[in-house]
Write a structure and sequence with these properties.
Layout (H helix, E strand, L loop, with lengths): L1 H8 L8 H34 L14 H10 L5 H13 L22 E4 L9 E4 L1 H4 L5 H11 L21 H14 L13 H16 L5 H7 L38 H20 L1
Helix pairs in contact: 2-4
Length: 288
């Protein structure tokens, strides 16, 4: 109601002079610039606060205190992923792990080599090899802290805070909170984990149906169709003792003496063949 009353009291844009319209436009942009400066100042202050976390000297990244958890969730609301990367870099400069709830020092790597080869948790030889720069490994104290830090990063919005209502965003979640809830759920569940029916999405069900139909078309869908769909093939190796002599060159072919299919005009073989053709026509004249 107050906004409606204000719009009635303010003069219409068409009734304003050119100078008044320019003044309103300048004030509008000045207001936006001031909001951006305030949010950037807030992000800088939050970065300074997060550099000193965790507050307890014996804090564990997997079991942080409630106060530190609340500080992290509230401070990271206006952050973008680029602001979060800057926070991690500032902690690394201070020789700290990039995860804000970890007090340990970050890893140190040999900077003489430009790249490092690291292995993951995949099965099979060379199934999960990655080539990374040493500075990427120095961001965290361990792979577990890197996983928890990146879990926070993927929840941040790419849109700047001054262009969105960042105060009403959904609260951030910590990776250790999700893990704790999963452990509690497994502990309270009386059904064995192996006996639980996995949840399959619609896309996975559609893919499974299509793969089953494809297997039926190839004769692999059931046991009854295998006998009819598959053909017995006998593979016989060539006998290396058998000597096959190549055919001798012949000048009887019309393509003899050709160069990639082209027969030169002055080719003697062409003249000989044309002469034989003329002799055959002369022999046929008396018959006609």
């Amino acid at each position: 109601m107050a906004a409606a009353a204000a719009s009635k009291d303010s003069p219409a844009p068409s009734s304003l002079s050119r100078g008044d319209r320019n003044r309103q436009l300048a004030l509008h942009h000045a207001h936006l610039i001031q909001i951006r400066k305030d949010i950037e100042s807030l992000i800088l202050t939050s970065t300074e606060t997060l550099l000193d976390l965790p507050t307890a000297t014996t804090a564990s990244p997997s079991e942080p205190s409630a106060a530190d958890t609340k500080t992290v969730k509230e401070s990271l609301r206006p952050f973008q992923p680029s602001d979060y990367d800057a926070l991690v870099e500032e902690r690394n400069i201070d020789h700290k792990c990039g995860y804000v709830l970890c007090r340990r020092e970050n890893r140190r790597q040999n900077r003489k080599s430009k790249y490092r080869i690291v292995t993951g948790s995949g099965h099979g030889r060379g199934s999960n090899l990655k080539v990374v720069e040493p500075k990427e490994l120095e961001r965290w104290c361990s792979d577990e802290c890197g996983k928890m830090a990146l879990y926070l990063r993927v929840q941040l919005s790419e849109e700047p805070a001054w262009m969105r209502d960042w105060q009403t965003n959904e609260p951030l979640e910590l990776y250790e909170e999700i893990e704790r809830e999963a452990r509690m759920h497994d502990g309270n569940n009386s059904v064995p984990r192996a006996a639980m029916k996995p949840q399959v999405s619609d896309a996975q069900q559609t893919l499974a149906i299509r793969m089953k139909d494809l297997a039926v078309e190839r004769g692999e869908g059931n046991n009854t169709s295998k006998a009819f769909a598959r053909v017995a093939v006998n593979v016989r190796e060539n006998d290396p003792k058998e000597q096959v002599s190549p055919l001798p060159p012949s000048t009887d072919s019309k393509h003899a003496g050709s160069i990639e299919g082209y027969i030169p005009i002055g080719n003697p073989l062409t003249k000989q063949q044309s002469g034989q053709h003329e002799d055959a026509e002369d022999d046929m004249m008396p018959t006609i």
